[in-house]
Amino acid sequence: MKISLNWLKDYVDLEGIASSEIIDKLTISGLEVEDVEEKGAEFDNIVVGFVKEKKKHPNADKLSVCAVSTGAEEFNVVCGAPNVQAGQKVAFAKIGAVIPEGGFKITKAKLRGEVSMGMICSEKELGLSDDHSGIMVLDNGFEPGTPLKEALGLDDTVIEVAITPNRPDALSHIGVARDLAAIFNRKVKLPEVNVAEAGERIEKLASVEIQDNAGCPRYTARVIRNVNVKESPNWLKKKLTSVGLRPINNIVDVTNFILHELGQPLHAFDLDRLEGQKIVVRRASDGETFTTLDSKERKLTSNDLMICDAEKPVAIAGVMGGENSEVTNATKNILLESAYFNPSSIRKTSKSLILSTDASYRYERGTDPNITPYAANRAMQLMAELAGGEVQTGTIDVYPEKIEPMHVTLRFNQIERILGFGVEKGEVKDILLNLGLKSVMEGESELTFEVPTFRPDIEREIDLIEEIARIYGYDRIPTVEKISITLSGKTDQSAFKDTLRDAANGLGFYEIISNSLQSKEVASLTGSPVEMLNPLSVDMAALRTSLLPGALYAVAKNLNVGEKNLKLFEIGHVFNKLSEGEIKSFKDFSETPDMMFTVTGKADTVSWYSKERAYDIYDLKGIVNSFLEKICLDNVLVDSYNLVENKNFEYIFEKKYKDQVVGRGGLVRKDVLKKFDISQEVYCFEFNLSALAEIPVPQKRFKGLLKFPKVLRDCAFILDKNVTSQDVVGLIYKSSSNLLKKAELFDIFESRNLGPGKRSMAFSLEYYDENRTLKDEEVDKDFNRAVEAVIKQLNAEFRGTS
């Protein structure tokens, strides 16, 4: 976006500040200056001339011979313009000057026998407008010999500023002026608006109906009658040309001027060409067509917001007007639109039509919904002044649901905590007030500000601290020669994740990082997805509900390049909706950190000492147990097995702490693998790290070697399928004495011979005492008591011992 420093000075006092310093400070504060153009250099050797005398050329009917004075000198000049007259002040190009339009150099010449020592220029030749009907006649108040750039105020510095999407407020001269006011501790001077109203009430002349409040939350309209559409005065044309705009007429030029002054797009309609003198804001119909001001027919969809009269569309809302209601030289009565449109709606329309304008550029980033009346009144004031019209009484302002400013509290101690250095309270307050915020509550330790709606990027305390840092100046951050840090400064969660990574790396796993955005279809495989409001694509429409899809994508990519034997892990956050319906707060969805282990391919490859062997469920279980052993949770968690088919796994096993599942996984189903174009078996196990982190880790103590022998017993039972191995192990421990040190499942067997709904589970039991050798009689007694308890309480059939 182009910004004129001369224009900026209308709103903030920059006296005594060099343009180079302004440019440097703006860039440091975040408004990066990409290009600088020094205006006026093209007018070297072009001065104000006074035509003392005009005579007819003796050898040409259409040429004149003029005596042009620059005060100290007088020149003989041959001129062909029909409007040149004695007594005029003109733009005179001396010998050596280069004419901006065409770039040719002025030299001494002889035209039809008469010597010409310079050139009297038109506006077109000077590049100031398209007018080449005659020479440019200047105000009589200019002194002859004054450099033209000085006389017309053309000695300007124009900067090209790169505006980030989060700063729509900076897309105007006043927006940039606010930043400069904060940087140099000056005050912003907003234009005073005084509208002299006359004539009828506006409600008798026009009406506005909004059929889509979401697309158009606010529509403000004013009417001015009996205007004289004509060329704009020089001061207005100069403002527009300084930022690269072409002046059109006084009405259109005013709307463009305010766009670059305030950042609020306006649109002027010929009121007499609006059927029913009515504005209707509605959605287009699919396939509807409309001819825009550039004479192109546009095909619309139901996503496009339209401005219509009582019968037909007259503009594409926020993008471009139409030929059927544009202001022409014959226009007498004008309805002015000053509206706030939904940024998302305008962005979609602009992209679908491949049509970007100065208006759409601002609307799609977010304009100020509460500036529309001020911008309309500012335009009315200028139109009445420049076009001689009568501003009709009243304003139409349709604003169903007011958008209120936010209140944000800033704690002074947080500034130093976040930035690492302190800023004086008085300077903090001055910075934020100069940026346009209002102080609503002041305490010893904090300030509360009302954030104006032209700053939608400021929502939280951290945003205020960022504003302080960028305006205070990153170049003023004090240099610290020595910084003391502590390794224990990491958050518990961060340190815990580092421990897990080390454990996984020690087991030979490689870390992967997958995209947390997935298609809704993929995210729905593993949970209830949280959908994005404005997704970049269909493949990134929802947040992941599990790390499983990301792991399978990684496996598929590796298989495609010939890597078939993989050991991968990932740590990342997953998200799930907690209830049906629209998400209205953070309570409507969960966010948890998870960790996924993935193995596929060959566990052992062919060598002289081993045969080739593929990964199986026991490898996955061994990996999980080894991982838990590394983080000292192997004796805390217990296994739970479920052979019933799962949505994503052929069979699964779980790790539980008490009754809480902290992880589960198994063999991924073939139909799921097929969705990812994977043809070999994949085993995955996913931990919930929030649950895992809350488990108390047993304190490590040295324990001497056992001096007395262990006694081992095995037993097998036929049980109902709904009985888990954890049920059996828990009952065995409960019915045994403290001589039983370990009980675990080592085999599961299913067969029709066992009976419907039945399966066999075998367990190994380990007995010992650290202080003596056990007797067979006491072990048998303890063992038999445990077996009896399982038979009676779980309705089991005892299959025997070994």
Tell me what the structure shows.
There is one protein chain. With 802 residues, the protein is of the alpha+beta class. The protein has 20 helices and 42 strands. The strands form 11 sheets. A 7-stranded mixed sheet has the order 28-31-32-38-37-36-35, with helices on both faces. Strands 3, 4, 5, 6, 9 and 10 form a 6-stranded antiparallel sheet that branches. A hairpin with a 2-residue loop joins strand 7 and strand 8 (114-116). Helix 4 (173-183) runs antiparallel to helix 11. The termini are far apart.
Properties at a glance:
802 residues, alpha+beta, 7-stranded mixed β-sheet, 20 helices, 42 strands, elongated
What's this model, at a glance?
The chain is α+β, with helices and mostly antiparallel strands and 802 residues long.
